[in-house]
């Protein structure tokens, strides 16, 4: 003869509810992965059927986004965004370190993908239709500020950051005010 207390029954009900919830979550993840794979297959089929002279909407504006994905641009953007408050100035070293590490990780992942499948390599910037706009983006204040910061970090032991703060930043501000 078995004896069950109310707490055992409640525990079993909670366990089965958790187990059911886990099954639902896992099945949802599997279904969503299936949906993603299915959509990618449909896109591949649609791309094969598309005429080659038709412009690809995703291809447009990619050169500019690739420039904005450079480390120089990301660092410059972070410097500008965080220089608007005292708290931002305190956060700058942490934010810059995070951006640098994240960028390095993304670059490693890209390199590994290229090693596995060389067809995934991005084409040269010159081949994009918005290449001239991307060149303008390379000349913007954000990109130049990030480049100056990278140069300062390469010469940190020789006062690179001090030179950056008191010489490079004011020089860049003067140059871009004139434009």
UniProtKB/TrEMBL annotation:
A single GO molecular function, which one?
glycosyltransferase activity
**Keyword Glycosyltransferase (UniProt):** yes
Task: Give the superkingdom in one word.
Answer: Bacteria
Which keywords are on file for this protein?
A: Glycosyltransferase, Transferase
| Annotated protein name in UniProt | Alpha-2,3-sialyltransferase
